[in-house]
Amino acid sequence: MIDVRTTRHQMVEQQVRAWSVLDLKVLEVMDSIAREQFVPTAFRDVAYADMSVPLGHGQSMLAPKVEGRILQSLAIQPQDRVLEIGTGSGYFAACLAQLARSVRSIEIVQELADTARANLERNGVRSVAVECGDAMTLADEAVYDVIAVTGSLPVYDPRFEHALVEGGRLFVTVGVGPAMDARKVTRAGRSDWSHESLFETRIDPLVNAPRPPAFVF
């Protein structure tokens, strides 16, 4: 019989920490949440593998090491209000909830939103509000301390950085494959944002995210 607790700890040490995630709070959170409880039954055996896990509807869970890097880059504080774009299974929202005061999570696929809500409730996560909607219609201004966009943007959209309060941090992945730019965007002032390139990765685009125009010969 598989020792899930040992497997989870190995994931943290051999995948997450090994990919330069050294923030102890992040490592402790990922070592404490039962990831297998958020994975579709057919994929429970690879819940802790170094891979993206399919969720259906063309969506997937991010690889654990990528999730760790995102959490570390955002430097989430206990008083922070967090917006997550792309709920998926609810696992990443559960991680965010352990670090922040509250989490609003938007998922465009109704079935995934319902499943994530059930996963979070079953695991005792109370500070996450899951909504079904299209994040590409977001019009919030200066509301959130932290925003995590878990799908990529083929073309950068500034609507998310405008939803940050001053001092707020946004994680977003920009571009098209094979290598996309994972960025941290910080709102330094009312009309001032800084962009920092973190690493290269490949993440499925958000549904309805604008695509660059096709090149025509």
Task: Please tell me about this protein's structure.
It is a single chain. The chain has 217 residues and is of the alpha/beta class. The chain is 27% helix and 29% strand. The strands form 2 sheets. The protein has a 7-stranded mixed sheet. Strands 1-2 form a two-stranded antiparallel ribbon. The longest helix has 13 residues, at 4-16.
In short:
With 217 residues, this protein is an alpha/beta fold.
Number of helices: 6
- Strand composition percent: 25-35%
Q: Which CATH-level-2 architecture?
A: 3-Layer(aba) Sandwich
Backbone structural class: alpha/beta
Contiguous low-pLDDT stretches (5 residues minimum) are none
CATH superfamily: Vaccinia Virus protein VP39
Count of discrete structural domains: 1
Kindly provide the radius of gyration, computed on alpha-carbon positions and rounded to a whole number of angstroms: 17 Å
Widest β-sheet, arrangement of strands: 5-4-3-6-7-8-9
Largest sheet: 7 strands, mixed
Mean pLDDT over the residues? 96
Which properties best describe this structure?
alpha/beta, two-stranded antiparallel sheet, 27% helix, 217 residues, Rossmann fold, 9 strands, 7-stranded mixed beta sheet
